[in-house]
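Support request from a user on the community tier.

User writes: "When I paste my structure tokens into the form, the page sometimes reloads and wipes my input. The last time it worked, I copied everything first. Here is what I submitted, just in case something in the input itself triggers the reload:"
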């Protein structure tokens, strides 16, 4: 017996293939393989403070020398402006990893010199969002950088 392929059979095969594709797509989109989290739990509250962040960043950019981040052999070297006395600089450094919030961390800024080393041990290769909130003489500054480590 010879099988004859007709156009109604082609339509049926196309519809069944499409239904299998859609079913597979729906199944894969609802499995917890990927985590679809917001970058912040207080996303909408953060947006209200966004203009303040812009002002703090502009204040930092108006300095003669802003914060800089450089990769060195032992980790990341963060340099603060030399125009300020290191003991008067305070604040926090936040490292956020969008792909895995479990490895996010925040460090306080305590300086003896104008440089701070973030050790290689706590950094994982990949993309990091670095936010440095720092204060000198009750004046606040903000430095943001997205870097690939």
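"...and here is what came back when it finally went through:"
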């Amino acid at each position: 017996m010879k099988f004859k392929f007709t156009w109604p059979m082609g339509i049926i095969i196309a519809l069944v293939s499409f239904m299998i594709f859609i079913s597979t797509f729906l199944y894969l989109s609802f499995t917890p393989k990927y985590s679809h989290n917001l970058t912040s739990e207080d996303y909408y509250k953060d947006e209200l403070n966004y203009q303040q962040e812009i002002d703090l960043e502009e204040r930092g950019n108006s300095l003669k020398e802003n914060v800089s981040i450089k990769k060195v052999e032992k980790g990341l070297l963060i340099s603060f402006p030399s125009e300020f006395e290191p003991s008067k600089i305070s604040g926090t450094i936040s490292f956020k990893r969008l792909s895995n919030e479990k490895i996010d961390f925040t460090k306080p800024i305590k300086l003896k010199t104008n440089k701070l080393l973030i050790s290689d041990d706590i950094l994982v290769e990949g993309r990091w969002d670095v936010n440095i909130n720092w204060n000198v003489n009750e004046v606040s500054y903000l430095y943001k950088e997205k870097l690939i480590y």
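Agent notes: The reload is a front-end session timeout and is unrelated to the input. The chain has a mean pLDDT of 88. Helices lie at 7-30, 43-48, 50-61. Escalated to web team.
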